[in-house]
Amino acid sequence: MKCTVCKGPAVIDVRRHNANFCADHFLKLVRDQVGKAIKDFAMLTRDDRALVAVSGGKDSLAVWDILLELGYAADGLYLGLGIGDYSDASGEMARSFASSRGLRLIEVDLPTDHGFDIPTGAKAARRVPCSACGLSKRHLFDEAARTGGYDVVVTGHNLDDEAAVLFGNVLHWQTDYLGRQLPVLPARHGFPRKVKPLVRLGEREMAAYCVLRGIDYIVEECPMADGNKHLGYKEALNAIEATSPGTKHDFYFGFLARASDRFTPDAETEQSNLGACSRCGAPTTGEVCAFCRLAERATAIPVALGREGGAR
Ligand code: SF4
Ligand SMILES: [Zn+2]
Ligand SMILES: [Zn+2]
């Protein structure tokens, strides 16, 4: 297998591009794809202060690394979710990446700072863990960006993630979600701008990028992801991609180019009713925001009870 660019020995094939790459040209491809996403969707400027949401997984560490390589100013934010050993190990990965490169990593710990963990919160609110977790993460990212004076929150969502979310939203015709499923959400109503610079890159490419760059990341899946529908959607799309390379890309970018703006009114209806949470001041459609309601329920029950059958 030879590199399509320089004819040297290739280390990876990217079937979507019908091409093979040596290590140097693969790293260049990844940076170029991120650069193109940033430019095409006007995600970042050189003056922006960016806060990267770092989970300790391959995507978030890679996007932090790539942004720094491309000359953007970016700090990291790690959220301790209290998911047993998984949180301990992922926090270690985030910390060692930051300290080995002399980077600033802000840490927020849900159990220490807010008095509950995700297994307890999910149980108390009778939500599936990923739902309690997702709403907590969104709230805490926004809050950290606001208090730290950051212009933009960067997440490591890649093409596989976005195509799977789109697939789920289409299967259930969640039109308000479809109206918000964009690689850039502009700052408004007190929410910082949110950007996803990895949308042009797949999961396998991000793993290869980390290996080639010597980035250690947590390989294990979160133990709470069992039964998560998102994983099923990914598998279904992987089966299609295996026989028709490029399908995920066409599905997601075709949606952005030809369909997403048709759903903007659905997303705006919800956004137009926003006020400030009476407890924390965050933007919300109700009197008290979803995070404060979750925290109230989660801290009202004894931790030992909530933990029963929770994180391993
Ligand atoms: S899999 Fe679910 S619970 Fe685990 S970190 Fe992701 S969103 Fe949170
Ligand atoms: Zn090459
Ligand atoms: Zn609140």
Notes on the structure:
This protein has 312 residues and is of the alpha/beta class. It has 14 helices and ten strands. The protein has helices spanning 23-40, 58-69, 84-101, 110-114, 118-125, 129-148, 159-171, 175-180, 203-213, 229-243, 247-258, 264-271, 290-300, 303-307; strands at 12-14, 19-21, 50-54, 74-80, 105-109, 152-154, 184-185, 193-195, 275-276, 283-284. The strands form three sheets. Strands 5-4-3-6-8-7 form a six-stranded mixed sheet, sandwiched between helices. Strands 1-2 form a two-stranded antiparallel ribbon. Helix 5 packs across helix 13, helix 7 crosses helix 10 (229-243) and helix 7 crosses helix 11. The chain starts with 11 loop residues before the first strand and ends in a 5-residue tail after the last helix. Residues 303-312 have low confidence and may be disordered. The structure holds iron/sulfur cluster and zinc ion (2 copies). Residues 277, 279-280, 282, 288-289, 291-292 line the site of one zinc ion (ZN).
Q: Secondary structure elements and their pairing?
A:
Blueprint (H helix, E strand, L loop, with lengths): L11 E3 L4 E3 L1 H18 L9 E5 L3 H12 L4 E7 L3 H18 L3 E5 H5 L3 H8 L3 H20 L3 E3 L4 H13 L3 H6 L3 E2 L7 E3 L7 H11 L15 H15 L3 H12 L5 H8 L3 E2 L6 E2 L5 H11 L2 H5 L5
Parallel strand pairs: 3-4, 3-6, 4-5, 6-8
Antiparallel strand pairs: 1-2, 7-8, 9-10
The structure holds iron/sulfur cluster and zinc ion (2 copies).
The site of one zinc ion has 7 residues, from helix 1.
